[in-house]
Specification:
The protein has 290 residues and is α/β, with parallel strands linked by helices. 29% of the residues lie in helices and 23% in strands. The chain folds into two domains: 3-47, no CATH class; 52-288, TIM Barrel. A hairpin with a 7-residue loop joins β3 and β4. It is globular, with a radius of gyration of 18 Å. Its cofactor is [4Fe-4S] cluster. Keywords: 4Fe-4S, Iron, Iron-sulfur, Metal-binding, S-adenosyl-L-methionine. Residues 68-283 form the Radical SAM core domain. GO terms for molecular function: 4 iron, 4 sulfur cluster binding; catalytic activity; metal ion binding.
């Protein structure tokens, strides 16, 4: 379903400037933004995926992974199409890197909450692809979720501008964010984005100003972000900027997409990452995907 987007400004010659994420796309009439799901039509920016659901499942909250918020409860999880990163190690690349065929079921916000309640979910989560680019839909759903006493979860790559984050914050309980690397050049190699520092800034804002529950995940990819220097940088960022109580999930990579030639992450590497996190003062470091 097409819906006029939030967070954009109109420019001359029917161009628009999308303000949702750090790409800051200037989009000509008849063209889409980098994410592929926000389109300029006659000087109006539209979301092309409002209510379009590619994946829907009742999951344990621990599967997100979120271990320290409402444990042993279940969330109704939904995903759509597209993303504002181009991660070469994305396990859900079939939906996240789709830019043309948004063939899913339309589920209104009201129906989504109805399904969650019918399945006895205690919360709802937007996951499987990047919820930021689904912003208008997730915002409407989150408002209804809070009215129905459901907690809310963003499973996000963190590539979002601060004003949208602040708009949804009153209705968003959990910000489960990927920190994919520490050094900018590694981040760009993994995800092909220009401003990885914006991920760190949004995470700090979510935790310290907006008071969300934050958990961090790093998918440890051999030869790319598995060095002691990268892992120590991430661990120290979490400890110093987010707090020692913020959990860090270090998870096993499996070969896919651009990195099919790599081997799965050795368990020893994940154990090393856990030790690094604990040595940096983090209280909770969890190994995942094993």
């Amino acid at each position: 379903m097409r819906k006029e987007a939030l967070f954009y400004e109109k420019l001359e010659d029917q161009k628009v400037h999308c303000l949702l994420c750090p790409w800051d796309c200037v989009i000509a009439n008849g063209k889409n933004g980098v994410c592929g799901v926000r389109r300029n039509e006659d000087g109006i920016l539209y979301s092309l995926i409002y209510g379009i659901v590619s994946s829907l499942a009742l999951d344990p909250i621990e599967k997100k992974p979120v271990y320290h918020f409402q444990p042993r409860t279940h969330v109704m999880s939904a995903g759509t199409f597209g993303c504002n990163m181009f991660c070469g190690h994305c396990q859900n690349w079939r939906i996240s890197q789709e830019r043309k065929n948004f063939e899913g079921n339309y589920i209104s916000p009201e129906k989504f909450i109805e399904v969650a309640l019918a399945e006895n979910a205690q919360g709802v989560a937007w996951t499987y692809n990047e919820p930021t680019i689904w912003f208008e839909y997730t915002l409407d759903c989150a408002k209804l979720a809070k009215e129905n006493n459901l907690y809310t979860v963003y499973v996000t790559n963190g590539y979002i501008n601060i004003p949208p984050l602040e708009m949804i914050a009153p209705y968003l309980d959990v910000y489960r964010v990927d920190i994919k690397a520490y050094h900018p050049e590694t981040y760009k190699k993994l995800c092909k984005i220009n401003y990885p520092e914006k991920v760190f800034e949004a995470a700090v804002h979510a935790k310290n100003q907006l008071k969300m529950h934050v958990e961090v995940i790093t998918n440890v990819v051999p030869t790319l972000n598995d060095s002691d220097e990268e892992l120590t940088g991430i661990a120290r960022f979490i400890h110093d900027k987010l707090g020692e109580d913020v959990p860090w999930h270090v998870t096993r990579f499996f070969p896919c997409l651009d990195f099919r030639h790599l081997s799965p992450t050795p368990i020893e590497t994940l154990e090393k990452a856990k030790k690094i996190g604990l040595d940096c003062g983090l209280k909770y470091v969890h190994i995942g995907n094993v």
